């Protein structure tokens, strides 16, 4: 069956080849990268899809900075977290391979900042006074260069480096990926799943979110044996029973499929929502398209 999200993506592509956050808005990196991944992974054999995808590749290549990073938008020139998504997208296309490699090398140079030395000392000497219950030594990737590591940008960077890390950087990639896994496990919420950054603040447990949990599970799809992954999957299934937003259905379906648990009822619900789509976030539509892909590796990272 044809993926019902793909025609919506093609119809909302901007004349410049990109996508904005919403139909008709100026093109930005996140929406364009996710749409390009969705088109790259579409099972439909259609020259129009190939042409749309290559136009997206051209837009992304044009926006890449000299240092290998991408900004969130052409009018916001600073390097940004969305470099991970642009790198992931371009790694699916021969015409984007060189740019993806430069993006991956930029990612390897970025590290989220840990806690300052005096905070780490306080954590050791007076653990009861810790505002957050995390290991301050572990670093992943930040939203903004030079700031704290967060869960989502770390998951995005891991997915990008799985595909585009490069053989010449294999030792560095392996080291960063291992620490990132440890950081994500350290940030898991009590009972399973992930919040945006911490699991506990001032002694109070934080609750997990389905979209964040799904992204982490996608990044940890090659570590199914980890207890945090099993707990996260159980938490995600419970959250999916209460949350049927298009974003949650798309990302939740992706994560379950990546862990061998493709849920046909969920896919049917997602397909129905997409068929009735009349506008909304492009990134959500792209995640839905990927969630509808008939694959246990919708992002193409398992064998990379």
What does this structure look like?
The structure is a single chain. The chain is mainly alpha-helical and 304 residues long. The protein has 13 helices and four strands. 51% of the residues lie in helices and 3% in strands. The strands form two sheets. It has a two-stranded antiparallel sheet. Strands 3-4 form a two-stranded antiparallel ribbon. Strand 1 and strand 2 (149-150) form a beta hairpin. Helix 11 packs parallel to helix 13 (282-291). The mean pLDDT is 88.
User: For the CA atoms, what is the radius of gyration?
Assistant: 19 Å
Low-confidence stretches: none
Total number of strands = 4
User: DSSP strand (E) fraction?
Assistant: under 5%
Structural class label: mainly alpha
Quick check: average pLDDT? Answer: 88
Strand neighbour order, sheet with most strands:
1-2
Q: Which percent bin holds the helix content?
A: 40-55%
Rounded to the nearest angstrom, the distance between the terminal CA atoms is 27 Å
> Quick one: biggest sheet?
2 strands, antiparallel
Contiguous helical run count: 13
Reading the helices and strands in chain order gives HHHHHHEEHHEEHHHHH
Globally, the shape reads globular
Helix/strand layout:
Layout: H1 5-11, H2 29-40, H3 47-63, H4 83-90, H5 97-109, H6 117-125, E1 141-142, E2 149-150, H7 151-164, H8 170-186, E3 200-201, E4 204-205, H9 210-219, H10 227-240, H11 246-258, H12 264-275, H13 282-291
Antiparallel strand pairs: 1-2, 3-4
Helix pairs in contact: 1-13, 2-3, 2-4, 2-13, 4-5, 4-7, 5-7, 7-8, 7-9, 9-10, 9-11, 10-11, 11-12, 11-13, 12-13
């Amino acid at each position: 069956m044809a993926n019902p999200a793909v025609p919506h993506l093609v119809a909302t592509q901007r004349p410049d080849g990109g996508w904005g956050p919403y139909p008709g808005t100026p093109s930005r990196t996140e929406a364009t990268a996710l749409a390009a991944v969705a088109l790259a992974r579409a099972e439909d054999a259609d020259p129009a899809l190939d042409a749309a995808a290559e136009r997206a590749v051209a837009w992304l290549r044009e926006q890449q900075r000299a240092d290998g990073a991408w900004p969130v938008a052409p009018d916001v020139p600073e390097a940004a977290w969305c470099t991970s998504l642009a790198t992931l997208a371009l790694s699916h296309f021969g015409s984007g391979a060189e740019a993806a490699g430069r993006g991956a090398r930029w990612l390897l140079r970025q590290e989220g900042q840990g806690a300052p030395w005096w905070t780490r000392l306080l954590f050791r000497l007076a653990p009861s006074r810790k505002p957050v219950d995390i290991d301050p030594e572990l670093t992943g990737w930040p939203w903004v260069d030079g700031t704290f590591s967060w869960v989502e940008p770390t998951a995005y960077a891991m997915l990008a480096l799985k595909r585009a890390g490069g053989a010449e950087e294999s030792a560095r990639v392996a080291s960063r990926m291992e620490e990132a896994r440890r950081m994500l496990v350290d940030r898991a919420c009590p009972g399973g799943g992930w919040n945006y950054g911490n699991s506990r603040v001032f002694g109070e447990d934080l609750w997990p979110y389905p979209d964040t949990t799904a992204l982490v599970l996608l990044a940890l799809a090659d570590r199914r044996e980890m207890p945090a992954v099993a707990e996260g999957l159980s938490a995600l299934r419970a959250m999916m029973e209460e949350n049927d937003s298009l974003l949650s259905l798309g990302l939740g379906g992706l994560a379950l499929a990546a862990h061998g648990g493709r849920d046909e009822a969920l896919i049917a619900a997602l397909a129905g929502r997409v068929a009735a789509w009349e506008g909304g976030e492009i990134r959500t539509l792209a995640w839905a398209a990927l969630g509808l892909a008939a694959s246990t590796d919708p992002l193409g990272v398992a064998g990379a």
